[in-house]
Amino acid sequence: MKTLTLSAPAKLNLFLHINGRREDGYHELETLFTFLDFGDELAFTLTSNQQEIVICGDTAGIPLEDNLIYKAAKILEPYKKIAAGVDIHLNKQLPMGGGVGGGSSDAATTLLALNALWQCQLTIPELAKLGLQLGADVPVFVEGKTAVAHGVGEQLEPIDIAQKWYLVVAPPVHVSTALVFTHPDLPRNTPKLKSGWKLSDTGNDCQTLVKKLYPEVEKTLAWLLKYAPTKMTGTGACCFAEFENREAALRVLETLPSSWQGFIAQNTSESICHRQLRAWQN
Ligand SMILES: C[C@@](CO)(OP(=O)(O)O)[C@H](O)COP(=O)(O)OP(=O)(O)OC[C@H]1O[C@@H](n2ccc(N)nc2=O)[C@H](O)[C@@H]1O
Ligand SMILES: Nc1ncnc2c1ncn2[C@@H]1O[C@H](COP(=O)(O)OP(=O)(O)O)[C@@H](O)[C@H]1O
Q1: Hey, how many other C-beta atoms are within 10 angstroms of the C-beta on 44?
Q2: Assembly ipTM
Q3: How far apart are CA 232 and CA 154, in angstroms?
Q4: For a designed S-S bond to 243, which of 3, 201, 248, 262 qualifies (C-beta 3.0 to 4.6 A apart)?
Q5: For position 61, what pLDDT does the model report?
Q6: Which residues pair with 28 in a beta bridge?
Q7: Alpha helices in 77-117 (DSSP H)
Q8: Which protein residue's CA is at the shortest distance from atom 8 of ligand 1?
Q9: Looking at the chain, which runs of residues are DSSP E strands?
Q10: Among the options 40, 87, 106, 137, which is catalytic?
Q11: What backbone torsions phi and psi does residue 214 show, to the nearest 5 degrees?
Q12: Is 205 annotated as catalytic?
């Protein structure tokens, strides 16, 4: 049976503003999502047992039913046009729950891959709508374009931005997204950006609170700020420093304290998963 191997790229929130809170408790965001040319890798192989969805490789210690890859496959199953099961091999590269969207990206790549392999023939907007049930960050990975997002993160306006090199650092701490968003000290009233805004006018509204709750994140930001402009991505804990070229980013990566995980990558206007899928279909 044929195997389709696709990336599940990381994302960065180059800024994250919280404009308000909805009745259902979710927050209205204004954020700039961009993808990195580094991420998880998923290999999809159709199998003859049409009832089976098997996940192997790095199951990341997550029970099958909680794995966003499995959830994505199950949500798509009713639309499949061919009688086949699937084996999904995960090569985990991204830190879990770090604000780089690893789980959401895995889910989106699974929706895109199985839409093709199972010949579901759903459109990208239909897949993105399904993806929203799995998490607020899944739609942007399904659409696959660097974009300013509003709503909970599903209203996407593609945007062209400069290509940079990023050093992404994951301190050894797990930040709970739900804890941050339900915390009384989280600012929730940043006004929407006016047209002509510049990245220098923006920030991450979760950063001050997360620095206070998680000293490791404060240390990481302070350390990286010695070398380059730095922000936290999403609700953290990952932080990213921006460089003009690979050599400058690599030099700092090489001096990273051993207790921190880090990688360098370039941002891309289109998710590499989409590029790979197009090449496979042609
Ligand atoms: C904060 C962001 C920014 O890109 O990214 P991460 O830090 O997770 O990478 C996302 O909005 C996270 O989206 P996602 O990771 O899918 O969060 P979800 O699982 O949907 O939600 C986890 C919890 O966060 C809160 N939540 C999430 C998104 C949002 N716009 N408002 C919220 O209040 C809710 O309490 C929800 O129960
Ligand atoms: N395949 C997966 N990879 C990573 N996280 C997963 C996966 N499946 C479920 N999860 C859960 O989703 C959470 C992280 O979701 P994710 O979108 O990666 O958020 P973040 O942007 O914070 O990394 C993890 O804490 C983990 O419990």
Answers
A1: 24
A2: 0.94
A3: 21
A4: 248
A5: 84
A6: 20
A7: 102-117
A8: 99
A9: 3-21, 27-47, 53-57, 85-91, 147-150, 155-158, 165-170, 230-232, 239-243, 261-268
A10: 137
A11: -130, 90
A12: no
Mean pLDDT of 230-245: 97
DSSP E strands, 181-254: 230-232, 239-243
Looking at the chain, how many residues does it have? 282
Query: How many secondary structure helices (H) and strands (E) does the chain include?
Result: 9, 10
CA distance 156 to 38: 22
Q: Whose CA is nearest to atom 30 of ligand 1?
A: 152
Q: Could you tell me the two tokens for 39?
A: 């991420």
Supply the pTM of this predicted model. 0.96
DSSP structure class, residue 145: B
Q: What's the pLDDT at 222?
A: 98
Task: Confirm or reject: Cβ of 136 under 6 Å from ligand 1.
Answer: yes
| Cα–Cα distance measured from residue 156 to residue 29, given in angstroms and rounded to the nearest whole number | 11
Task: Give me 15's structure tokens.
Answer: 């800024």
C-alpha 247 – ligand 2 centre gap (Å): 30
